[in-house]
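Handout, section B. The chain below has 469 residues.
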Amino acid sequence: MKLKLLVLTAVIFGGGTSLANTTDDIEALAQRLITAKENVDLKVRPIIFQGKESKGQHDCFWMGPVYSGAFNIAYPDGGAVYWPTVFKMPADDAAAYLEISGSFPKARYMSVHSYTKGAKPYDRLIDFEITPDEGANNPYQSGAFADNQAYKIRVMQGEAPKERVDNTLYLGDMTQVDRSPLMIRHYIPETGDDLTGGAGLPQVTLVRGNGDKVSGEEACVALGSPAFDDKKRIIVAPALPQESFDKLLENPPVRENYLNTKKEDWSVFWDPRINLMAFVAPKLQEVMKTAARVGLIEKTSGFYANLDNQYVSLSLNEKFGEVVVLKAKMPRTPLFGTGVARKEDFDIRYWSLCSNEGLVTTRFSACIFDHEIKLTKERDYTIVVSKAANRPANARPECGVSWLDWGDAGDGAGNTGLTNLLLRNMAPFPNFKQAVQHIKGPGLEAESMGEYLPAPVYMTKAEFEAISC
């Protein structure tokens, strides 16, 4: 099965290809652009849970869990675990809502997101915002775990009002709700193999407009949640077919930009169209970045995105060196979820760096997160990115160096010398202004993040090994 993605492109008439630097110049340029549509085939890759779901960690409503060790697709983060759903609210009962009763997990982070069509994030509740049940404890507020950590939230039909109701999540325009409307996320569970963080799965009750309640299997039936052996018990992730990707690379400017250009600047994820433009017209991608920088393209979120995460990416190419060295300062992050209560002690909730394949596979090769990285007393780090065969002998913690596997498959589409790095920042605390979330537009990454954004340095394995341990 295939989908058609409409990629917005632009055609410049006259005046050369230099980029404007001011808002007035960009607005004038925009008036000289014609928007066109180019079809790019997208293959729908289903994530099928049947026979793969972890025993005791799914039920008729919550599927999964999905995590990098089980479902390596859609650029997963090595520290993330999530449970998606497939259901529909009763079409004849606009007042019906869901009541979700759970317990706060022992984990670095927990959230519940809702999604509209195309897996676009609409609303979310994050752990520390949730008021616990009367007499219960929220460890993200109190800073300590307790025996009773129960909470209850409501999932309401319709759009979120200006005046929010506590512990309430909204599904948005009910004609635009995604087939997988809800997702629970945990990051870094603190309970070993129990990915629920010791909390178990939340119980879901359908509350009808007349006050009647149904729970468990009865609720799943009423909501149309697919049974365990139902082929519809899936979520889907788009990826480019190999033949479509190869066709894009037949365009000389695209091929030159992708395979033969040294990339040294990180790019903030701002709008999916900007990212895809690299495979249609690289020069126009630069125009779009400039337009975004001056406010003409608003920031959007991608496929099943987490609204608490923001990213910068960097493409690496072995043609310019088999080893890439990254040096920067690590933001302060809590080791456990209870640290969230001490906001003044930390900068962001979670930091990670992953090497990834590309649009054909959407796999990750390897990830490392904040507390896995060797730091100096000043919280500076050195990370070496290379293939396992090219790992320098001194790229090890004893030498003050962390190592990230480049990935032998490269981009997963036959170009083994490439990889794509994703640097994630999650939920910055109020006083930290150098987070990815505060980048004001494409091209302002280094200026915004300062010493927290590493500049890549290419070298050979021998050159790095010449540096004393």
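Note. The longest strand covers residues 33-48. Compare this with the example in section A.
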